[in-house]
Design brief:
Distance between the termini: 48 Å
Shape: globular
Largest sheet: none
Radius of gyration: 20 Å
Number of strands: 0
Structural class: mainly alpha
Number of helices: 12
Strand content: under 5%
Oligomer: single chain
Helix content: 55-70%
Length: about 280
């Protein structure tokens, strides 16, 4: 089994390196043989890499092994999500379509990037507002929305956007769930995301993530934070259907109310100035 996993991972790494070097070029030369760059090459959006079912299976296996070895390999987690999440993405897209705000998002396709954020305005907002707390989260954790990789392996342009939107709101989930970026915080968010999205990648993270927790953190997860995350993730409004870019001035407590999310039962960020928490 170790030899098989190692071979799959090796093939996966080699393939991904080839894809990147070829700048979204032809995968095998069998499906797309034209050398004319003006002819349709199978791409549905600029970053798209067309793949067969077999290729997706190999990518899913290789990325899954790599992600298990190192949960902080966000590139591998991203590939795993894209190659296993088709049915879940369809359900998420359908939920967005029947929500007026979500429908607008699908139509306008906003992106959460540094180039789209008014950092000066957000930094001037009062403590406790979504914009100020999101910016504080980025600053304190030294992360940027630009670190989220572009979707490559989703073979539907609209579903690819849904996956991209999911990635770009991940840090916002940390913000209004008041979860840090340590292992416990990430596992709690994965619990919420698993119940909310049904993405196999999130379910896998929620299932295996607790194995990496300390005894005290595992106890906190089982007795308090885990049930809270699952309950609220399952009953909350679709988090992809919120036009956050138009809600930066909204108080986090009001946003949680709009989403039908209870405040966390335990404050894991004692230094956070968020006035909407229960601390």
């Amino acid at each position: 089994m170790r030899g098989v996993s190692g071979a799959c991972l090796s093939f996966f790494k080699t393939s991904c390196g080839y894809y990147c070097r070829r700048s979204y070029g032809v995968l095998t030369g069998q499906q797309y043989t034209s050398s004319d760059s003006k002819q349709y090459d199978g791409r549905l959006y600029p970053s798209h890499i067309p793949t067969s079912s077999v290729q997706k299976a190999v990518l899913a296996l290789g990325s899954g092994v790599a992600a298990l070895k190192n949960p902080y390999r966000h590139d591998m987690v991203a590939v795993l999500g894209e190659t296993t999440g088709h049915q879940a993405l369809i359900k998420l897209r359908n939920r967005m379509r029947i929500d007026p705000e979500g429908y607008t998002i699908l139509k306008e396709r906003p992106r959460i990037r540094l180039s789209t954020l008014d950092l000066t305005r957000m930094s001037a907002l009062p403590d406790g507002t979504l914009g100020r707390e999101y910016l504080r989260f980025l600053e304190e954790n030294r992360v940027t929305p630009d670190s989220r990789a572009d979707v490559k392996f989703v073979d539907d342009e609209e579903l690819a956007y849904v996956m991209q939107r999911y990635r770009e709101v991940h840090d916002l989930l940390h913000t209004f769930l008041s979860m840090p970026t340590n292992m416990l915080g990430e596992v709690v968010v994965k619990f919420f995301e698993a119940a909310q999205t049904g993405l196999p990648m999130c379910v896998l993270g929620a299932t295996l993530g607790p194995l990496r927790l300390s005894v005290s953190h595992l106890q906190l997860l089982v007795q308090s934070l885990g049930p809270w995350a699952l309950r609220n993730g399952g009953r909350a409004r679709c988090v992809l259907s919120i036009f956050y870019e138009r809600r930066w001035e909204q108080n986090l407590e009001e946003l949680r109310h709009d989403l039908n999310i209870e405040p966390p039962p335990v404050n894991l960020i004692p230094s956070n100035k968020n006035t909407s928490s229960n601390s």
